[in-house]
Amino acid sequence: MKINEKGHLVIGEVDAVELAEKYDTPLYVIDENKIRENYRRIYNAFKKRYDKFKILYACKANTNIAIMKILNDEGSGIDAVSPGEIYIALVAGFKPEEILFTGNNVRNDELEFAVESGVMINIDSISQLKRLSKLCNPEEVEISFRINPLVGAGHHEHCITGGEMSKFGIAEKDAVKAYSMAKNLGFKIKGIHCHIGSGILDPSPFLMAVDALTKIAERVSKEVGIEFEFIDIGGGFGIPYKPEEPELNIENLAKKIIEVFKERCDEYNLGNPWLYIEPGRYIVGNAACLLTRVNTIKKSYRKFAGVDAGFNTLIRPAMYGSYHHIIVANKANEEPCEKIDIAGNLCESGDIFARDRELPKLEEGDILAIMDAGAYCFSMSSQYNSRPRPAEVLVKDDKVSIIRERESIIDLLDKQVIPARLLKGGKK
Ligand SMILES: *Cc1c(COP(=O)(O)O)cnc(C)c1O
């Protein structure tokens, strides 16, 4: 954490309190250098150990077009989960061949959109394969399958995307069937994929996934006669949210994953496929914070500091019980001296950012920085309670750029229509 001579939190080379004053709160502040550092750290850790390696940024973590452009500039590809994400990625400058579409319960018109966009399609069910085959010329479409390898992990039950309870992917036992159907239909089969969960800070689930996925690839390759161009082990690389949590040792993790990956590729005669990973959180998670201003200090049965953001702005604490570290941006070098609940501005009991958080003495007007808010924060925001979504600014060294304008209350009525019969003087 950087603090200036005024005792204010510094983001890049910019005073967070000045940002809050200039752009108002709530405000997402994203540090471009951190995104680039995170990308390069994880890319280099794998790339130096295995040359045929690619990152597909899982953009549902944060789809702001400026962030997409930064990752395009770094040489990343994209993991897209919806037609909207394909569209944003194309507008950001990614080529169709750099985008893998991993949809879940997708409609036919969404599959058509993916085909017309020319992206590769990662198929989640046999139903999807059959439907896709009817609406395209399979010989022109590149596909892979998402397999559920019965390995799951994650920071919360909702974030475990492999294993028996998961709605994602094709069961292991159906993998051979799925690939042979696809082959008979004439698709261009490129790869095999899994994504086991999110927020994983321990190497072992990844190693189990590599182990399981390569084993399935072996069976498919033998029984169906397919040579895989790539093996995609998904994302899920965690970040520490609590100050005392250790960072993921990415060098050690990459070393272990590549060891197992190479060993299995040799053992199972899989040749020399590309290895893809799909980090989202790891790349953008710690690159942003949410600035919000304390407007109410009150003591009822507990002591509360009420702020001008709510779970419509940042939902992770309410949805997953997640911890987000909070820094008082205008008192960044003061010692904690009280325990206080930080409460949002929505009419919902669950709208609490933190309970019993130890902070310096809070006063109305203080600026709080809710840290590690780059992933699954703005992208999960809503207008609940009819509160407009906040602005986003991008900081690069001492430069600040608005990358999303603040919504106004007028935007709340965007796309809403009053039937004529409800208008005054209208026909009943
Ligand atoms: C969400 C998702 C990811 C990224 O997960 P992180 O935990 O942010 O790394 C990767 N792949 C797929 C298919 C996803 O749905």
UniProtKB/TrEMBL annotation:
Annotated positions binding pyridoxal 5'-phosphate? 236, 278-281, 376
Keyword list, A-Z: Amino-acid biosynthesis, Decarboxylase, Lyase, Lysine biosynthesis, Pyridoxal phosphate
InterPro entries associated with the record? Ala_racemase/Decarboxylase_C, DAP_deCOOHase_LysA, De-COase2_N, De-COase2_pyr-phos_BS, Orn/DAP/Arg_de-COase, PLP-binding_barrel
Which EC number(s) does UniProt give? 4.1.1.20
Swiss-Prot/TrEMBL GO biological process terms: lysine biosynthetic process via diaminopimelate
Pathway named in the protein's UniProt entry: Amino-acid biosynthesis; L-lysine biosynthesis via DAP pathway; L-lysine from DL-2,6-diaminopimelate: step 1/1
Q: Which CDD domains match?
A: PLPDE_III_DapDC
Q: Where does substrate bind?
A: 281, 316, 320, 348, 376
Q: Which reaction does it catalyse?
A: meso-2,6-diaminopimelate + H(+) = L-lysine + CO2
Can you give the residue ranges of the Orn/DAP/Arg decarboxylase 2 N-terminal domain? 40-285
| Any one GO molecular function term | pyridoxal phosphate binding
Active site (record annotation): 347
Instruction: Output the superkingdom of the source species.
Output: Archaea
Q: Which cofactor does it need?
A: pyridoxal 5'-phosphate
On this chain, the residues bearing N6-(pyridoxal phosphate)lysine are 60
Q: Which Pfam families match?
A: Orn_Arg_deC_N
Q: How does it assemble?
A: Homodimer.
UniProt family annotation = Belongs to the Orn/Lys/Arg decarboxylase class-II family. LysA subfamily.
User: NCBIfam families from the entry?
Assistant: lysA
Function description:
Specifically catalyzes the decarboxylation of meso-diaminopimelate (meso-DAP) to L-lysine.
Q: What is this protein called?
A: Diaminopimelate decarboxylase
